[in-house]
């Protein structure tokens, strides 16, 4: 990447675009909603069970002008989901401003490990043990989605729930490869602790992206 392009990336004028696609939101509060996904490259949180590890290395994904990303997005849906990788590694101010100028609803899926930039209609916080969220993201999250891989994740989930705002919706979601084992455990836990809800990766059951 040349110096001029790097400056544009640092400003959020260009972003490492891994993929963009129109599909059905499969998880959390907005599951079942048609949405256009913008997946950005770059992540150093390093979850061993991540199902998009090809997103980790931002250098593999071409810097794309934010205005071009927005022009594509507005053709498909009024709900836009920015995900990754970890999108907050990049300055989201320009991208979200451009999307909001188009009267689009703008959502983010983030680990919260980096400072919050951008203007969001919905923040899905999915915290990871290796790199915890910032205090600002805890305060502003609309939903907390904790991935359950083993029994210690229930402890971690409660620890994270104690840090978010009182209106944040709480979800537990089985890690896909462990779903047969952990779904019964999640069901049992949620029935005993009904402040939580179950989130499933319904798009995988529907066999869509």
UniProtKB/TrEMBL annotation:
Its cofactor is Mg(2+); [4Fe-4S] cluster; S-adenosyl-L-methionine. S-adenosyl-L-methionine binds at residues 49-51, 85, 126-128. Pathway: Purine metabolism; 7-cyano-7-deazaguanine biosynthesis. It catalyses: 6-carboxy-5,6,7,8-tetrahydropterin + H(+) = 7-carboxy-7-carbaguanine + NH4(+). It comes from the Bacteria. [4Fe-4S] cluster binds at residues 43, 47, 50. Catalyzes the complex heterocyclic radical-mediated conversion of 6-carboxy-5,6,7,8-tetrahydropterin (CPH4) to 7-carboxy-7-deazaguanine (CDG), a step common to the biosynthetic pathways of all 7-deazapurine-containing compounds. This is 7-carboxy-7-deazaguanine synthase. The gene is queE.
């Amino acid at each position: 990447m040349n110096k001029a392009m790097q400056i544009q990336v640092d400003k959020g004028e260009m972003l490492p675009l891994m993929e963009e696609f129109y599909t059905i939101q499969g998880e959390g509060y907005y599951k079942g909603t048609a949405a256009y996904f913008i997946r950005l490259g770059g992540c150093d949180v390093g979850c061993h069970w991540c199902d998009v590890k090809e997103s980790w290395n931002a250098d593999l994904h071409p810097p794309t002008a934010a205005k071009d990303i927005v022009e594509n997005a507005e053709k498909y849906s009024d709900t836009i989901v920015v995900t990754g990788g970890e999108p907050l590694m990049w300055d989201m101010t320009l991208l979200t401003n451009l999307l909001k100028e188009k009267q689009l609803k703008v959502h983010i899926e983030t680990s919260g490990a980096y400072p919050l930039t951008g203007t969001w209609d919905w923040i899905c916080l999915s915290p990871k043990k290796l790199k915890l969220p910032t205090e600002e993201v805890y305060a502003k999250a609309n939903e907390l989605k904790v991935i359950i891989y083993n029994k210690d994740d229930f402890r971690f989930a409660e620890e994270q729930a104690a840090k978010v705002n009182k209106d944040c919706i709480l979800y537990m979601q089985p890690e896909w490869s462990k779903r047969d084992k952990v779904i019964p455990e999640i069901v049992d836990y949620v029935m005993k602790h009904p402040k939580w809800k179950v989130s499933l990766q319904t798009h995988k059951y529907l066999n869509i992206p």
